[in-house]
Amino acid sequence: MRYGIVLFTSDRGISPADAAVAAERAGFDTFYVPEHTHIPVVRAAAHPRTGDASLPDDRYLRTLDPWVALGTAAAVTSRIGLSTAVALPAEHHPITLAKTIASLDHLSGGRVSLGVGFGWNTDELAHHGVPAGKRRTVLREHLDAMRVLWTEEEADFDGEFVTFGASWSWPKPVRKRIPVLLGAAGTEKTFTWLAKNADGWITTPTENGLDDKIALLHRIWHEHDRADTPQIVALAGRHDAAQLKQWAEFGVTEVVYGLPDRSADDVRAYLTRLAEKLGIEETR
Q1: Residue 262 per-residue DSSP state
Q2: Between 86 and which of 34, 53, 117, 261 could a Cys-Cys bridge form, CB atoms 3.0 to 4.6 Å apart?
Q3: Do 150 and 173 touch, CB atoms closer than 8 A?
Q4: Inter-axis angle of helices 210-223 and 188-197, to 10 degrees?
């Protein structure tokens, strides 16, 4: 399995650039950051972990722009993958977002993947004009439109929420297809959408029963004639060697650990200790 790190970015603590450098030096494979454009003060949407309008962490209010954050990380690293866990493409126009992601991929030498979510915060989505009952449709169209821009010399798109005529747009991503990972609860509905529109699954932080859910994903994946194997990224809490062994047997391809909301020195020390537990070799 590969190992990654997710930094819940904010305007305090270690910067994304410093965290990415420390993660790369410690030997981790991927560096992830989240996205919220803003948090509406009055919300009907319940947070998945609290079950009501309260938030488990004030960093939801302070999250940095993911592509600016990853751009700073790209400038000071050379190997580590750059991704989101998770971004919300439905909140952006796909023409401009496609340009941003392709530019980052080009400048980083093809190190970008895209972790996406439908968005639990329907009030936030509503401020961007996304109907609550159309989150999956809007996300699908935005991804399809970006893929056209990334792959076609003259790109055009005609959908329910996105329409544009024949257009030129460069740069193109290094590998043409940016890998897309869906972060959502492991259900049949989620996996059906995933098999049609994405390349892998990012578990939710409280996901359980991974053996059965991964088996379900593989079944649906093959029912949709996907010849390859889906990437499966598991979000972990504390290091647990027995759990890691199980996950590897289930088919998890990458395990991602969150960084503590502490000083830069504390975060670097945490990465060093975690890498030692995982048996990852330090790089320079």
Answers
A1: S
A2: 117
A3: yes
A4: 40
**Range 258-278 average pLDDT:** 96
Do 198 and 116 contact (CB within 8 A), yes or no? yes
CB 119 within 8 A of CB 133: no
- Name the region of 206 (left: φ>0; alpha: ψ -120 to 50; beta: rest): alpha
Mark residue 238 as left, alpha or beta (left: phi above 0; alpha: psi -120 to 50; beta: remaining).
beta
Contact 145, 156 (CB under 8 A): no
Instruction: Give CB contacts under 8 A, 24+ apart, made by 147-151.
Output: 147/177, 147/178, 149/94, 149/95, 149/98, 149/99, 149/102, 150/98, 150/102, 150/176, 150/177, 150/178, 151/176, 151/177
DSSP state of 112: B
pTM for this one?
0.97
Cβ neighbours for 141, distance < 8 A, ≥ 6 positions apart: 94, 157, 159, 160, 161, 162
Q: Are 31 and 57 in contact (CB under 8 A)?
A: no
Residues 177, 156: Cα–Cα separation, whole Å: 17
* Beta-bridge partners for 202: 183, 233
Sheet containing strand 30-33, edge to edge, reads 81-84, 30-33, 2-6, 254-258, 231-236, 200-202, 180-183, 114-116
**DSSP element (H, E) containing 248:** helix 241-250
DSSP 186: -
